[in-house]
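Input:
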Amino acid sequence: MNEMFAARGLRLLAATIVVVNGFVPAVWILLTSLKTEVELVGRPITYLPHHPVLDNYVRAFTDQPLLKYLGNSFAVAMMSTAASLIVAACAAYAIARLNLRRRQLILTCIVASSMFPLVTLLVPIFETMRTLNLLNTYTALVLPYTVLNLPVCTLVLVSFFQSIPRDLENAAMIDGCTRLGALVRVVIPLAAPGVFTAGILGFVNAWDEFLLALSLNSSASMRTLPVGISLYQGEFAFPWPTISAALIVAIVPIAVLIAVFQERVVGGLTQGGLKG
Amino acid sequence: MKLDRFKDPGEKTLAAMLLAPAFVLLVLVVVYPIGRLLWNSFFDLRLSGGGAKFVGLQNYLNAMQDADFWNATWNTVLITLITVPGALVVGLCLALLANLPFKRRWPVRLALLLPWALPLAFVGLIFAWFFHTEFGVVNDILRRLFGAEPTMWLLTPRLAFTAICGAIIWKTSSFMALILLAGLQMIPKSLYEAAEVDGASRWQQFSQITIPMLMPSIVVALIFRTITALQTFDIPVTMTHGGPGHSTQTLAMLIHATTIDYMNVGYGSTLAVLMFVLSLFVTGFYLKRIGRNA
Amino acid sequence: MQPRTLQGVLTIGALLLGLAAGDALAQTKLRVFAGGSGQRPDVMRKVFDQYQAKNPGVTIEMETGGATSELQRQYLSTVLNAKDSSIDIYLIDIVNPAQYHSAGWLEPLDAYMGAPAVALKPYLPVYATADVVDGKLAAMPAFADALFMYYRKDLLDKYKLAEPKTWDELTAAAKKIQAGEGDSSLQGLSIQGAPIEGAVCTFLIPYWSQGKEFNDAAGKLTLDKAAAARGLSQWLSMVDAGVIKKNVAEVKTPDTVNEFKAGQVVFAANWGFAWDRFESDKDSRVQGKVGVMPLPAMRGGKSATCVGGWQWALSAFSRYKAEGANLVKFLASPEVSKFLAIEGSLLPTSQAVYTDPDVVKAVPWFKDAATVVVAGRSRPMSRDYGQVSDTIRTTTSAVLARTKKPEEGVDEIESRLRRVMR
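Output:
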């Protein structure tokens, strides 16, 4: 009986640690978004706002087309993640399952493309996009982001594919499936946690990206969120309250997405072909 | 027995088909830039005037004698050595905790993944604020608990370094936790049940089942955490801008400054190539491990 | 329809089409990069509309982006590096013409506006240095700025203190006020010590005040190490005296503004835009209590200040250089400068505009500002300004954070820049 209690108490403590760790900055930003700028230079610092105001949210939406930025970021992130997953799944299957002589080299090449700092590849990428007349379009960002996410997605999927026993695919193929069919119908569903993981990683990478978005999609209607949020500040002003409001607006859809999908990524997917 | 010939002709075509999209994309987007980068590294190319002068390996030799380069490389390696294991440990704990059967799982899961939702460019600014001498939460809590005098976190090299590592570990532990969590989910429960029946203790279950089965995921997580750690840029640049002095300047920051501020494209390219070599060397033996598992 | 009527209709139709086509052919579209929100794009748009009204064949498209100097430099660096021809005119910081012109990104304006001496005659003297690179006219002035010393008039009056003329006087005045007010969080002086562009000015002001030059006319480094160390030590002594706060190396431009606005600072060094924030912001606690004066001098020296402000430059890759140059000429004209002063409180670029009665009526404090701006000096005009700025600001911030001694810092500046500024 005592052991159960201890375990429960420990679990609660553990849960508290995790929740505090994850929520503290987000809660801080939320509280800041309700304060006025003058309150921020008060000493000692305040936690809860003295006089909560909603002006910052109004300003966040009126100073800049925040919703447009949100939409752009979303579109670009979704498209590049989907593209990455498809391309990575194909490549990962080839590497994990087919007996290729240069398997190691191919994987290294794919991963190696992420070992260069983006700032040094910026100008040539800009020139390429300009030559293809793609500047200030979604494609201008989707293409590089797909490539940026390729290493992570490929490696994650290779690792997950490798951990799935071959017998299941062989069983499917004996039943008359093609190799590709086996990939789609057997392997991917079993590696679902890996697929969703790779998907979330790719999505957030695209969501966070700043440098390329700044240079390639500079026109106001095509800007992404990180670039857009950086514009609330001026040479001489850094309005934390307004920026916090914009950040909350940026976080909420992601948080909702995560809350909805967390079951899929994290929750019981083992009720599949791995029973025994 | 390793087959180094294809089983049937069909497989060769299949392999080509499956790998083609990846390589087409790579060629289209990064091969030309990387090629240009390598090319430029052998030239003295400054945008501030004068055309490109071929200097062969001189840039590389200069880098070897450049105190800033070694300082930045050392800082980068140190950050990697601290934050990669740090994020792994914290991430593993977070993943194990999130995997526990709670009544209501979503707060824990959301808390796990929320650090991801905050755009990286702002994480540094937020943590800079947390560690601010006068307006920072850290100093405020220290004052309330211990009556401590305000510490100038970001103005003291060692403390600034610690604060930066803390911010990085905070942001990236969810990355690790995510990958590890997915890996945990793939471990069949039956293994644990069998172990219980055999009378294995909690710790034995952890070390004999969990860790070995989690190895592939751990390796993957480590590879990417390492590559990104070597490229650390956003958080230090927004927290301290490399200061005080150059005590928190990383290699990526040095490359950024050289290329964009100093407009010294030739030397910047050289440094980028050196960073690539470093990354390849460090992650090389991780990759071998993945290749070996068949 | 009768053949002759048909012929008539066709002729008129053709004429109309011809006119329309001709009109379309004559239509030039110019794209202007107008900086970020700090450069008042709303006011600039009105100026562009004025130009369009006067020149029907030209439409102007404005692009903004890059909130801070750093972000703009990043963006422009990429775009200009790629020789992009989509933007014709750039609004750039006063420190950039030398660097960008040497990189071949700016079209010299001599052919369109005359030799530099002639073209820049009506403007403030500082532009003869800032906008002229290798003897060519690289940019034209848009609006000016300078580092002013703002102060709490009410507090100085309360303690019957005169405007301090030297840093020593300022220290004494600040300490008297701090003691009298009994408020431990009241700062005597707020300056910018973070590794931002403004820190370059923090280094140069006490240095220039001693009558020293940072570089000669050819751009060679002429650093007087003792004087530079003295300048940095001046700041540190004020920190020790409790006049400047200990974590000054964390202070950025907006921080000084916010703290002065909240009534926590007696003296504040800041740029021209700050006046509006102090006087007009809703949450300002210092409305009506603000005075402005030139920066104090070092003991036995003269007051010196940094000039800021922005410049119009023509892209070397533009496809409409003649039209672009025309627009630049208009944008730099005294009429536009007056408009910017009245509508946007942006400091004028020529002395005449400062004393224009309409301007004085709209922005009375510009009268006091005039003396400061006219005497202002430009930061080192080097084609490697990026490196010069980075070195000075990083080292200054490190010295203010007490991780380096002033002498060490100055030695480092000298050794790093000796090769760059030859």
